[in-house]
Write a structure and sequence with these properties.
- Helix content is 53%, strand content 0%.
- With 158 residues, it is an all-alpha fold.
- It folds into 2 domains: 9-100; 102-152, no CATH class.
Length: 158
C-alpha cells in the first residue's frame, strides 16, 4: 500500500508512523518470544531423544532378562518333569505345556527297525501313517505332535 503524502495531513502521517512503530515493536517482541520458544523446543527435543535412548536400552535389557528368566524356568521345568514328575503340580504342568510348540509328526518308514507290525502290509511295506513320537495315525495327523510325558493325557501345545 502506498500513501500519497501530498493528500495526507502531517498529523495523519505522524499518527500512521506511530502506529507502524507500535506494530513493529510488537512484532519484534513476538519474534524474540518465538525464538526463545524455538530454543526451548530444541532443548526439549534433545532431552526427549536422550530419554528415548534410555528407554530403548531399558527395553532391550528387560527383554534380555525376560529371555534369560524364561530359559532358566524352562530348564527347571524340564528337569522336574524328567527327574521328579510326581512333584510337578498341575499349575507347573499347565505352564510348561503352554510354552511347548508343535513339532512335525515323525512317521515310521519302510525298512526301519521297530516298525509296528500293525502298520505293515504282507510285503513289509509301511501302509499306514503312524507317528513315532505321539502315536497318532492317519486321520489324527492334523493334530499337533505332542509326546505323552509322565503319563499325563492333557498335553497341550500352542
Amino acid at each position: 500500500m502506498t500513501i500519497d503524502a501530498s493528500k495526507t495531513s502531517p498529523e495523519k502521517l505522524a499518527e500512521m508512523n506511530d502506529s507502524l512503530i507500535t506494530d513493529n515493536n510488537y512484532l519484534r517482541g513476538r519474534v524474540r518470544e518465538l525464538e526463545s520458544e524455538a530454543v526451548q523446543l530444541h532443548a526439549d527435543k534433545e532431552n526427549l531423544e536422550k530419554l528415548q535412548a534410555v528407554a530403548a536400552t531399558f527395553n532391550t535389557r528387560f527383554a534380555e532378562d525376560q529371555a534369560q528368566l524364561g530359559a532358566k524356568q524352562a530348564e527347571i521345568d524340564r528337569l522336574m518333569i524328567e527327574y521328579c514328575p510326581d512333584k510337578v503340580t498341575d499349575e507347573q504342568w499347565a505352564e510348561w505345556c503352554s510354552h511347548q510348540h508343535p513339532a512335525p509328526h515323525l512317521l515310521w518308514e519302510t525298512g526301519e527297525v521297530g516298525v509296528p507290525s500293525a502298520i505293515l502290509d504282507w510285503n513289509g511295506e509301511v501302509v499306514l501313517g503312524l507317528c513315532k513320537v505321539c502315536g497318532r495315525a492317519e486321520c489324527e495327523l492334523d493334530e499337533p505332535c505332542t509326546p505323552k510325558v509322565c503319563g499325563r493325557e492333557e498335553n497341550k501345545v500352542k
